[in-house]
Amino acid sequence: MKLTTMLSKKHEMKRQFQTNTRIYVKIIVMTIIFSLFVFRNIAQNIDSTQKAPSYFGTAISVTNNGISLLPSFTLGKPALIVDLILGKGKLSFEPQLRFALEGKPWSFVFWWRYKLIKSQKFFMNVGTHPAVAFKTIKITNNGSTQEMQVAQRYLAAEFTPTFVTGKHSSIGLYYLTSHGFEQDATQYTHFVSLRSSFNQLALYKDWHLSVAPQLYYLKMDATDAVAFSSSFTLAKGHYPLSLSSIINKTIQTSIPGMKDFIWNVSLVYSFHKQYTAH
Fold first, then answer.
1. Which residues lie across from 111 on neighbouring strands?
2. Which tops the pLDDT comparison, 6 or 142?
3. Closest CA to 212 of 191, 236, 229
4. Residue 110 predicted with pLDDT over 90
């Protein structure tokens, strides 16, 4: 009788997980469709007097270790990351879908970005996004422990003032703030970084390297940290495949679970196309 009850509860938890997964997928699909509809109307209104080009792009990354938007945190296992961008003129919609390679969702971020200021020497972008992050919790019933995924909702905004210092270099600030809606999620996050970018540095023939180091301060509710991170991308000409890596070194932290050093290597396929209305 006891074994039957345990099997029944296990089946019920599995059924609940499958139901939640279907709900999450429906929410994601509806969000993307709604966002595309809103984007189309906003973009037409913003650029109605300008024949601004439209553009679409994607970057699909397979990595040995998924690293978060906040580089202090990692999935801790291989991941698939899909970045999309759909834009017209100054406005773009940029969803990012992240999964563990085993198939479980990791996080879904739906960026809206706007090029507020743009000149030869300075530009500033602003953005906002709703996001859903997934975490796995363990539930024990009658001595049987099962894993279940739960979703946490966030709303964030970003500001990116940047100075162009050369043909292939820039320096600027990046500020991200977010609010978590669930009680067990981080309520308020502030991320401030001093970052620079060195793009398409010539190496050999058509090979080039891009490097983007940053020193940042991260505050999550009552805890905080200072760390250094950098990304590296090795590419050849206009070839769609590239190799990238992220490293993150913690300098000081009071944030629970933050590791001293993390890194990854990713294989990236990218595509970008611009369209002009006639």
1. 94
2. 142
3. 229
4. yes
List pLDDT tens digits, range 24-52.
Answer: 556 566 666 655 555 555 555 655 445 67
Q: Say which amino acid occupies 170.
A: S
**What are the CB-based long-range contacts (under 8 Å, 24+) for 108-117?**
108/28, 108/132, 109/69, 110/31, 110/32, 110/35, 112/35, 112/39, 114/90, 115/90, 115/91, 116/90
> 88 CB contacts (<8 Å, ≥6 apart)?
39, 43, 44, 46, 47, 52, 53, 54, 55
CB distance 248 to 264 below 8 Å: no
User: Measured between alpha carbons, how far is 20 from 147 in angstroms, rounded to an integer?
Assistant: 13
Give residue 41's pLDDT. 59
Query: Alpha carbon 246 to chain centroid distance?
Result: 13
Identify whether the C-beta of residue 71 lies closer than 8 Å to the C-beta of residue 246.
yes
| pLDDT per residue as tens digits for the range 169-209 | 999 999 999 999 988 889 999 999 999 999 999 998 899 99
95-119 b/e with 16+ CB inside 10 Å = b?
bbbbbbeeebbbbbbbbbbbeeeee
Q: Could you give the CA distance from residue 95 to residue 81 in angstroms, rounded to a whole number?
A: 11
The pLDDT of residue 99 is 92
CB 135 within 8 A of CB 111: no
Closest CA to 55 of 272, 270, 238: 272
Find all residues with CB under 8 Å of 71, minimum gap 6, and list them. Answer: 216, 227, 229, 246, 248, 262
Instruction: Categorize the per-residue pLDDT at 22 as very low, low, confident or very high, splitting at 50, 70 and 90.
Output: low
Structural domains of the chain, ranges and CATH numbers in brackets: 2-270 (2.40.160.40)
